[in-house]
Specification:
mainly beta; AOC barrel-like
Length: 179
């Protein structure tokens, strides 16, 4: 009988925890998923007085690497409606890029597309993935978002349309499922 109060107390708290567990399993309706297709252009300006990617770290061996392996950049790149940098600005691509291959020109990228104009103003999409920049068409994952793109998932297809010294323009076609 010595342990009876302890067992009774344990059973009491177990009963309370079990009765409250239904609250935590409550299903919340999200409505029907929507599919959005976005088309825009990403511009990276690496030269001049206001470069959009900034080198923040590199390994000792990066300077001798043919692929810049080990270099890490933070970027704040403009997103525009058209292929020209002077096209209507619709947002910014803000995030981190790192050269991740010793043998090929590949970046690992984590970017937030911050929309500042138009239908998606105030919303963001998060894109993460490997970007083999010399391939004609690449694909990266849409892993989240906020605002209009809450609970987003999907993919982005990338195609470089301009690669020149100090300048890069990439066409993005994004398909995203959101609620």
């Amino acid at each position: 009988m010595k342990g009876a109060p302890t067992v009774a107390l344990l059973l009491f708290f177990l009963a309370i925890a079990t009765s409250m567990s239904d609250y935590w399993r409550e299903t919340v309706g999200m409505g029907q998923p929507k599919v959005s297709h976005l088309h825009f252009y990403f511009h990276e300006v690496g030269k001049g007085s206001n470069p959009t990617p900034i080198l923040v770290a590199e390994a000792n061996s990066t300077k001798t690497s043919p692929t810049s392996f080990g270099s890490v950049y933070v970027a704040d790149d403009p997103l525009t409606e058209g292929p020209n940098l002077t096209s209507k600005l619709i947002g910014r691509a803000q995030g981190i890029q790192a050269a991740c291959s010793m043998t090929e020109f590949n970046l690992i990228m984590a970017l937030n597309f911050v929309f500042t104009d138009g239908e998606f103003n105030g919303s963001t999409l998060t894109v993460v993935g490997r970007n083999p920049i010399l391939q004609d068409v690449r694909e990266m994952s849409v892993v989240g978002g906020n605002g209009v793109f809450r609970l987003a998932q999907g993919y982005a297809q990338l195609r470089t349309i301009l690669l020149a010294t100090g300048s890069l323009t990439v066409e993005y076609n994004v398909t995203v499922i959101h609620y």
